[in-house]
Specification:
Elements (H helix, E strand, L loop, with lengths): L1 H16 L3 H5 L20 E9 L5 H17 L5 E6 L12 E7 L2 H9 L1 H9 L4 E10 L2
Helix pairs in contact: 3-5
Length: 143
């Protein structure tokens, strides 16, 4: 239970630091100290947050390969409306070994569901080749 709470806290911290792609598309400047709400005409987006913890001994080359492969998905799957990626830079020492964060945006839950079973997403999963120790996934609707 405590471990699950810590994982959710990690996701919350990571999400808080992610730029709001939706707000940028609507012309709202995202400020680090206080993000503005998206205007009414800007639709809500479903955010799909993925955290990776690589197995000990995974080479930097393999990690770069994974990053590149994940980043290529928006070009292959048109229902992905936004993509962000980054590595952990937190000084709080609460990442539990999770080093990489990927945030995908979808217009609907149906689009997210279609992404999950999309052949290119499945192929990406197979390409990981067992290099991941753990994965955390959280989805939420932006506000």
């Amino acid at each position: 239970m405590l471990r699950n709470m810590l994982c959710l806290a990690i996701v919350a911290v990571v999400c808080a630091g992610c730029a709001n792609i939706n707000a940028e598309k609507c012309g709202v400047a995202a400020k680090a100290e206080s993000q503005k709400a998206c205007p009414k005409e800007c639709p809500k987006m479903l955010k799909h947050v993925v955290l990776f913890k690589f197995k000990e001994g995974t080479t930097p080359e393999k990690i770069k390969e994974v990053e590149k492969a994940f980043a290529s998905l928006p070009g292959k799957i048109d229902i992905i409306k936004g993509f962000e990626a980054g590595t952990n830079v937190s000084v709080e020492n609460r990442s539990e070994g999770f080093t990489h964060c990927f945030v995908l945006s979808f217009s609907s839950a149906a689009d997210r569901d279609a992404y999950l079973v999309h052949p290119n997403h499945k192929e990406f999963g197979k390409s990981l080749g067992g290099c991941l120790d753990k994965v955390v996934v959280v989805d939420y609707w932006n506000r």
